[in-house]
Amino acid sequence: MVKNYKKRVLILGGYGNFGARIARMLSSESDVQLIIAGHDRLKAELCASKLPGIAEGLRLERDSVNLSSQLKTLHLDLLIHCAGPFQQQQDYRVAQACIQSGTPYIDIADARRYVCDFQRLSPAAETAGIAMVSGASSLPALSSAVLAEIQRELPTIHSVDIAIAPAHRIVRGLATVRSGFEALGQSFPLLQNGEWRESYAGNYLRGVKLAHPVGERWLCDFDVPDLELCPRELPHLHSARFATGLQPRTLQTGLAVCARLARMHLPTANQRVARLGHKLAAHWPGGSRHGGMLVRADGLDQRGNAGSFQWQILGLNGDGPWIPAAPAAALARKFLRDDWTFSGAQACWQLLTVDEILAELAPYSIVTAMERLESPAPMVPAPVSNP
Fold this sequence. Notes:
This protein is an alpha/beta fold. 34% of the residues lie in helices and 26% in strands. α3 (67-74) packs across α4 (93-101) and α8 (174-183) packs across α11.
């Protein structure tokens, strides 16, 4: 009699905005049993019941004092951590529990300190003999994969400019909105023209033009892992910038005002304000169901000539939220197929190719384009923020 062994994958926060999408993507793996987990057992069971194949839901608190013991009893082959916001998890409690239980780990964090300091867990992960990766989402997994593509034509990169403009007519998770509000006004360093300067979340409101039908969006500075990882990994880099924002422009202007208020130490980041912002974003008129991401790099080509490349990905008709879910699914698939064999802890920097990520997005209204810009323009230096 042949034993039918299925690899057990637990998705913590698996009924959330991104966790549920990762679960849907991985449900196509016939030899995988998905476990949807979170603090609400009913939501977990409901999510699991909607998936094809074998799946179950259970209650599992990310802050549980005996989390490692619970993970041991589940005999997991992989844990995917989607229970943000990660800005509040600097103790790496879930990752530490995975080390103690010998469970391989992936997360979708985009908090700068969380992702950039994740490598400090590497000695313990190596001792445990497990692989651990942080940031398997749009940033830095997809952005770094795009930069790897650009480096084929532009091996020396001097500047990187990344923008994410989500659609307005999509469902946003409260945790995502709350983490955004909590970050408003907070200072962070970014590299501009070879010098580290200070900006803050919500600073420098400007228009960024994406391809039709997304069009021009108004975005602000925001702190992400790429602002530290790009200078760390690209030795010739002089400048790096990231911007994101809401649609329509009125909402984004309101966020910029909230950022200024936060700089004046006025309360804008409590849970009540976040819930209000969540409702406003959901019901505010206008906007569209189209969003996108842009990665631009300026530098030198193989002949030493100045060049500039720009890559875009557009999520149409409300399919944009599948984009940040795709890297975690692609990375999990590589691990489960034994295509990914290392031990240690690291950020998800160029661990995936663009094609591997896009393969997860094939069923959805997602389009991409790479173009060489004829007239490279220098990036605008970041203004130094006022205290």
